[in-house]
Every structure is written in structure tokens, then in C-alpha cells.
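[job 0412] stage=fold_complex status=start
inputs:
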Amino acid sequence: MDYSIKNNDIILSEKDFNLDETLDCGQAFRWKKIQSDYLCTYEGSFFNNKLVISEKSKGEFILHNVSEADFLEIWADYFDLYTDYSQLKMIFSEDETLSKACNFAGGIRLLKQNSWECLISFIISQNNNIPRIKGIIDRLCDNYSGFPTAEQMNGVTADDLSYLRSGFRGKYLAHAAECVNSGEIVLSEIAAAPIDEARTALKKIKGVGPKVAECILLFGMHRTEAFPIDVWIKRVLEEYYPNGFPNYLKENGGIAQQYLFHYIRNKP
DNA sequence: CGCCAGGACGCCC
DNA sequence: GGGCGTCATGGC
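[job 0412] stage=fold_complex status=done
writing structure:
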């Protein structure tokens, strides 16, 4: 990572980074592409931190109107800029399929998101498609003028959430808020727990099964060994890894999974 | 119209 | 423990 400050903007140079690939690969649901004179520009939020970011040219980015402190403390961490992805992709390149996935979209980075936001977002994601997931989360954020904290959702019932039109997931969302507000679930403790304990704890929340628990661990707690298996990854495993996913990749299996997810859904 | 979606639950055996 | 119907909603 290399950056400089220009007026009120942060100018970032990072070759292993592509905005379209990172912000539209199904890990986050609140980024919107907006019109600009740059390669592309996205407006969005990470919990309640807002950002407008442009890709000026390949590997060159502008974080608009961001202080150096916010960049270093919030956004550099969120975009996982302290991790060297070129080294990671060197390991990935030893695997034939993953190598293709990296060549197809090598600018994906694993976003380090907020655990509570991920808990809510991925409960919404179950048996749902990405455009509709985005719509439901939009309606939630509109209602609270930003992503609600657990405290703000204290006491909400499934009926209260009918405006989301989230279907059967409303009761799960209400229960998740209840679990966090009562202290029955402490996300910061789960994030630090051994992974199998963390999985078991998350699955105590109604509407959180194996797949959603893995997504919360991977996207919301940066547990890179977590490996969510949805219908797309199931196809990848059947088609390309009939003898199982290689052991040497499992430490970063979650990141690999994100490359594979994007690849299988978008490859020509 | 029917099929599908970053699945989980409840019930059955 | 595994198999199967059901659950809302809307994108395509």
C-alpha cells in the first residue's frame, strides 16, 4: 500500500485492487456505482462510515474527502490494505482453478466488515438473490438513516420489520437483535473464540445455519479459514475439486472461496 | 407463467 | 444422523 494526501483526498496506489471486482462480488451489499469521469466511482458505507471512492486508473484510487486518520484507522483496514495480496495470489497460483480465477478477477480483496452488520445482512441473504438482498438492506438503512445498531433494534418484532418485505426472515432478524441486546450473544467474544466454538455460538441464533455462520466469520470477523458453501461454491467443488479442497489452501480458504465465487458466476 | 436465489427450520424416519 | 417439504419475495 502506498498513499499520498491531496487537498482533502487520499490518493491510493494499490495494484492488487479493483473496485468493480471487490465491491460487486457478493460480500457487501451497500455499495452503489455512481456516474463519474473516472474508471468507476462507488458510494457506500461500512456500518456507519460513509465513503465515495473512485478508481482513477488501474491501481490508482481516490478516497474523496477523507482524513489521513480515517483512512488509516477505518478504510485501510476495511479494504484489507495491510495484507499483501500479491503474496497470497502466489500461493493461489499453484492451484489450476484458483489461478484462472485470479487471472479473471485478480483485484478482489476480502473486506473487513462489521460483525453485526454481517450478521443481519447474511440472515437476509438466505435463499435470496443479491439484488433483492440489497433492496431489503436499503430499506433497513433508510428507516434508521444508516445501518441500525443492535441497540437501535432493541425490542423490534417481526411485525415491526414488515416494511422490509424480507419475508420469513423478519422473525430471524428480530431474534438476532434480541440475542445481541440481551447479551446472550457477544459478537466480539465470538470473533476471538476458536472457530468451532464460534460456529456453534453463532448457530444459536435462529436463521443462522452453517452457511450464514461461515459468512459472518469470514466477512464480519475476518476469519480467513471460514469457507461458506452456497450453491455456486458447491458447483465449483463438484466440478473442479472432486477430491476435496487442497489442504495447503485452507488457511486462506475463505479468500480463495471469494475468488472462486466471483469466477464461477461471471466467467465467460 | 415457472424457476431460482450467497439456506434454515421442523418434522419424519 | 440424513432426507424432504416449507418458508416470502421478487429478479429474470
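[job 0412] summary: Strands of chain A lie at 2-6, 9-13, 32-34, 40-46, 49-57, 60-63.
[job 0412] exit 0
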